[in-house]
Amino acid sequence: MAKGSLREKKERQEQIVDCLRSEAYWTSQKLCNHLNTSYRTLMRDLAELKEAGVPIESERGRGGGISLVGRWGIRNLHLNNSEVISLLVSLAITESIKSPILVDNVRSIKNRISSAFPIEQQQVISKIRKRILVGNIASENVIRSYSPPRQSVLSDLTDSFFNLNKIEIRYLSSKNEITDRLIEPQMLALEFPVWYFLCWDELRQDARLFRIDRILSTKKTNMTFKIRRSDAFMEGAHELFNNI
Amino acid sequence: MAKGSLREKKERQEQIVDCLRSEAYWTSQKLCNHLNTSYRTLMRDLAELKEAGVPIESERGRGGGISLVGRWGIRNLHLNNSEVISLLVSLAITESIKSPILVDNVRSIKNRISSAFPIEQQQVISKIRKRILVGNIASENVIRSYSPPRQSVLSDLTDSFFNLNKIEIRYLSSKNEITDRLIEPQMLALEFPVWYFLCWDELRQDARLFRIDRILSTKKTNMTFKIRRSDAFMEGAHELFNNI
DNA sequence: TAATATGTGCCACTAATTGGCATATTTGTG
DNA sequence: CACAAATATGCCAATTAGTGGCACATATTA
Q1: A199 Cβ nearer than 7 Å to chain C strand
Q2: Which of A79, A180, B85, B134 lies at a CB distance of 3.0 to 4.6 Å from B96, suitable for a disulfide?
Q3: What are the extents of the domains in chain A?
Q4: Contact predicate B72/A113, CB 8 Å
Q5: Given this model, what pLDDT does residue B6 score?
């Protein structure tokens, strides 16, 4: 390549974004100087960055210049499956709270995060989102009777939920009766701060609701299950819950 | 460059990551084939990607291969100032709920998101984080008496909070007395779902707590203020609140 | 109208990228 | 233990993608 180019293209483009982030307004001259690069190359870089989706805005004419719209950027954030879900659930919770300080932003962030993933992953994420519901704060009664569930029970259940594995549970009903069940954890619902599993009960061949802290113990199985139509699990609860 | 190279480096490296995300295991041969590139170039790309922080793992020897650790990736997510804060607040809220399904992930995501920003921004973010507190769910009394604040009041207050501008407010005290005050919104605290502003009250020259839905109206000013030591605003509340 | 910005097409120069080859190095298997 | 299958690396010649300079277009403001 031509004279004076020491760093490589990629690095230089990152520098440009960093510059634009650190100060609100730049002119191309100032940037050329700062980066020690030619005007022509700068303009090419800017064009490439814009094409790549970096929200760079430029104003022509006297008093014009170059600026970055979202001046805060996340680069290269690698998350695993359950971290993505946590992130989305977290935003959904915040949204459901209708906390005025945040609510405007939260929805758009949720969508932006979702669409920041590659398309194939978006479909997977979207499927999981449909299986998680967030409602209102639980009633005082429920909150008072709520106790945090055991960690092992919890991880078994979430595994089972994500991997679509049937699971055996020992459950303490609200009438204080202990029963053993084989269930398909179809959906998850949150009524602050209590989680419920909306399940298909194999033995009773019907939909059942299980409060997570009332599940006493679990036993994994290798049997898999398929997602059922959500209608059965929602029965008039549509107004109470929202998908994440 | 040498034969058969149609796309550019950057694009090819993105393709590599996409491949690794779409399937759990690849061998270099398979990747070379798929990308129509030479082995040598592939290895160089992999090295570069690793250096750039992409969590690629490779196992040598028979049965070895190349894989991506976090197979879900966000690329190029551009957020503005308040969106970043919303995201972090949202995660903090989730964390404070101690919702067992998420709590393990949430803390690590929070940190990963924070550190995914350029260093200069990390400092700014960290300063704001110190000014936002999250406590427990408000008491039933408070929840019952809570009404969502007016949007205009809200946006004035958040502007004032982020830009460090003093602001005049008309406040309805818990004794139902209406007073006018000039305040510095130093900190924000959440007791689910109620937000409080921890402020320096100019006229009374003391720290005061304002419940957001009791602020009747606001009037912006151009006066700026400085962050004060948080001690005055916390007074024994340290155990009740956590920074986001 | 002049001054000051960004945006673009063209072209020659060249250094950064590429691919091939040889060679380590690691690991599992018969 | 020897062999096979994988990743990892150094070197070098070929070449192309990237660069910079120049001229010109276009937009905006004073």
Answers
A1: no
A2: B134
A3: 9-68, 81-130, 136-243
A4: no
A5: 47
